[in-house]
Amino acid sequence: MRVLAAMSGGVDSAVAAARAVEAGHEVIGVHLALSATPGTLRTGARGCCSKEDAGDARRAADVLGIPFYVWDFADRFKEDVIDDFVAAYAAGETPNPCLRCNEKIKFSALADRAQALGFDAVVTGHYAQLSDGVLRRAVDADKDQSYVLAVLTAGQLSRAMFPIGDTPKPRIRDEAAERGLAVANKPDSHDICFIPSGDTRAFLGAKIGVRPGAVVDTDGKKLADHDGVHGFTIGQRKGLGLAGPAADGKPRYVTGIDPDSGTVRVGSAEDLRVWTIDAERAIWTSGSAPDGPIECVAQVRAHGGTAAAVAEAVDGGLVVRLREPLTGVARGQAVVLYRADPLGDEVIGSGTISGTGQVEASRVGSEANAGRTR
Question: Was 140 annotated as part of a binding site?
């Protein structure tokens, strides 16, 4: 096959491209320029897509003996990922920009251009497994990225390749060294790629500005002032601007955010427990929604936040009834569903969380809307 290898400049994408070459595919390497003003050098492991990363990707392509190009996707990335991220926080949501980048950039904009140029698939260094259209968790549970790939449609998955998902990360580094790739020991990037400083609150404050509001307790009593709801997320404990813990001595957490009034509500750990999740924009990896309720495992964060559940497609979205409660579940996050079998590694679908409820699943029955919050 003729495949396009998305090369970020890191070890994972370099080895993925190498394996595609070794498998006999005609491989072309592409680095995505996602910033209009990329820094010359990254700071340690923070950020990515710098000039250094582009150079590392080019050198890896040279070692592999494949053609290499840099494609400018900065405008599309700003509109579909950065602007979306800022707007979501301004609306009191907690988005995951990696999901949006996969959905809108790597497997939409990039894949569409690749298809138009006659490529059969896009190869990436994501830690996930794909066989016969079925998306599964990676062998390396600590590096698994199936959660951030669950936004891909059946059509997008049919044109994707994840060559390294069957291998633990340490072995990927060993393989890179054996292949003579200089990125073998390059640190992994972490945090949000377009916020290399790691200071998300400062980044959002510069974009959104001051929008004063109040921090209140469960009774509506004002406890403090704040400069904007973008500085808070559900489950947050630190940086609340409070003088101390609650009267009972227990810590307080953000339990609700109202962007219209600018109100941030805080409460106890118990107040964070949710039993039902509403989600919109449901995506089913099989290409079609299930006919009725399905037993599954729901995951609400890239690593962790899982619970046995029953999910059902409803009006283009989905409703998830948890068998045990989850905490720190926020609007804007993704809920990803995995098949409830002994392996529990097959992705069924996903949706963007739009609301939660605190009525225990066993008591919800057909009255699933009782106790919902938005």
Answer: no
* Cα–Cα dist 120/1, whole Å: 6
Strand ranges in 103-228 using DSSP code E only, listed in sequence order: 121-123, 128-131, 134-137, 160-161, 213-216, 222-226
> Any binding-site annotation on 11?
yes
Residue in this structure with the two tokens 């072995």, named with its chain if needed: 171
166 among annotated binding-site residues: no
| Catalytic residue (one of 48, 49, 98, 193) | 193
The answer to whether 12 is a known ligand-binding residue is: yes
Indicate if 193 belongs to the active site. yes
Looking at per-residue pLDDT, the higher value among 360 and 28 belongs to: 28
Look up residue 95 and give its amino acid. Answer: P
Q: Does domain 210-269 have CATH number 2.30.30.280?
A: yes
User: pLDDT tens, 153-177?
Assistant: 999 999 999 999 999 999 999 999 9
Q: Percent of the chain, pLDDT > 70?
A: 92
Catalytic residue among 49, 98, 101, 296: 101
Residue 7 assigned as binding residue: yes
- Multiple choice CATH, 2-185, 3.40.50.300, 3.40.50.1820, 3.40.50.620, 3.90.180.10: 3.40.50.620
Q: Is there a binding annotation on residue 10?
A: yes
Collapsed DSSP state (helix, strand, coil) of residue 74: helix
Q: Residue 78 gets which letter from DSSP?
A: I
Q: Are 27 and 5 in contact (CB under 8 A)?
A: yes
Q: How far is residue 365's CA from residue 374's CA, in Å, rounded to a whole number?
A: 20
Nearest to 68 by CA among 157, 156, 116, 8: 8
Which amino acid is residue 94, in one-letter code?
Answer: T
Q: Rounded to whole angstroms, how far apart are CA atoms 218 and 248?
A: 14
Q: In this structure, what DSSP letter does residue 108 have?
A: I
Q: What is the CATH number of domain 273-373?
A: 2.40.30.10
6 residue type, one letter: A
Q: For the chain, give every domain's residue range.
A: 2-185, 210-269, 273-373
Is 49 labeled as catalytic in the residue annotation? no
The predicted-structure confidence for 223-254, as pLDDT tens digits, reads as follows 999 999 999 999 999 999 898 888 888 899 99
**96 within 8 A of 81, measured Cβ to Cβ:** no
Q: What count of residues does the chain have?
A: 374
